[in-house]
Every structure is written in structure tokens, then in C-alpha cells.
Amino acid sequence: MAVCIAVIAKENYPLYIRSVPTENELKFHYTVHTSLDVVDEKISAMGKALVDQRELYLGLLYPTEDYKVYGYVTNSKVKFVMVVDSSNTALRDNEIRSMFRKLHNSYTDIMCNPFYNPGDRIQSRAFDNMVNSMMMQVC
């Protein structure tokens, strides 16, 4: 079960964070922000290879006792972070990859909106519905 989905700007501030158990929201904010160091390490380790391969999916960033944290980075250096419950063993890597692609497509739709200013917080009902459906789909 996906418990948290976050969209982080190029400058590492949150554009969108949604978590399912709202009583642990601060814990998920901390988890997302600590994962940004791992994302930066993976991006710098890939370096030029990232641009050449067009591989945006970063894979498993780090596992904890309760959760697994996955990462994805766009060509414009916007980062997507997904926190998944560790007890969900049925979730495969290719399913996580397709969820990130779906998230990226929805983010692209927001960026194409002429009324959205890049860098502002994402406040879209369509994006919320898509994230909620992804969280329910994984459950």
C-alpha cells in the first residue's frame, strides 16, 4: 500500500505531498525530505548516463523497517517520491515504474495548464483524484 506520494521541485521544496494515515503526516514529510539526499546521490552517480539513457526511474532509494521509499526524477529535475508499506510484497518493480509514469503524465497535464505558475504548490482536483486512485489501487 502506498502511504505517501510527493512531488518535489528542482530546488527541493515540496510542490505536493499526500499521505494516507494523516496522523503520521509529519513522519512522512521527514521521510520524503531525507530521501532527497539519496536522490541527489543517485543523480550525481549516474551523471551523463542519466541524460543519455533517458532513465528517469531511480528505483528503491532505501528501505526502512516499515516502509520502502522509491524515487523518480523528470528531465526538468522535478522529483517524485513514493513511500510504500513494506508489508506489501505483491507490489513489483514494474508496477512501481508504471505508477511513476502515470504520476509524471498527470504532472505534465498540470504543467500544460496556462493558469498554473511553475513552482507553485499543486492544487488540482484532477491530480488529487489520480493520486487517490493510485493509493487505493495499491491497497
From TrEMBL:
Keywords annotated in UniProt: Cytoplasm, Endoplasmic reticulum, ER-Golgi transport, Golgi apparatus, Transport
Any Gene Ontology biological process: endoplasmic reticulum to Golgi vesicle-mediated transport
Localization (cell): Cytoplasm, Perinuclear region; Endoplasmic reticulum; Golgi apparatus
A Pfam family matched in the record: Sedlin_N
Main localization of the protein described in the UniProt heading: cytoplasm
GO cellular component terms attached to this protein's record: endoplasmic reticulum; Golgi apparatus; perinuclear region of cytoplasm
Similarity-based family: Belongs to the TRAPP small subunits family. Sedlin subfamily.
PANTHER family noted in UniProt: TRAFFICKING PROTEIN PARTICLE COMPLEX SUBUNIT 2
Identification of the protein by name: Trafficking protein particle complex subunit 2-like protein
Source species: Sakesphorus luctuosus
